[in-house]
Amino acid sequence: AEKEFGIPDAVTIDLAGHKLTSTYAGWSVVNYGELTVNDSGNTGIICNTSTEAGDSTHFILRNHGTMIVNGGTFGDEDTDRANENKANWGAALINLDEGDVTINGGYFTCGDNYWAGKPAGANYSYAIRNYGTMTIKEGTV
Question: Are 74 and 107 in contact, with CB atoms under 8 Å apart?
Fold first, then answer.
């Protein structure tokens, strides 16, 4: 995808062992509605392979609504689940102030901390970043 995939309403995605790859130098999946992510194949991946330095963060999942994650790999490009998230200055998941996330499973990898316009001392990165309401029941970070 060259742009983010925005969720405006109620959507359920079953990765079913498939891989969704974004090359967009920004957010990969943005939820404004109600998103449920399942992975019945247990090898499904959502990743972003952009290494372009930008003026904004590059998150795999960006939540403004209600999100339930039941499985999947977020960030790592393959199922070894040992690699970093290549998206510059981005986490596998960010939950914004108005967001509500429940994580029942899944694998979340940390992003690269490089950002061309970052403020001095901003050398940090996250696998999961939360500003809203989040419940983590199971998962690997």
Answer: yes
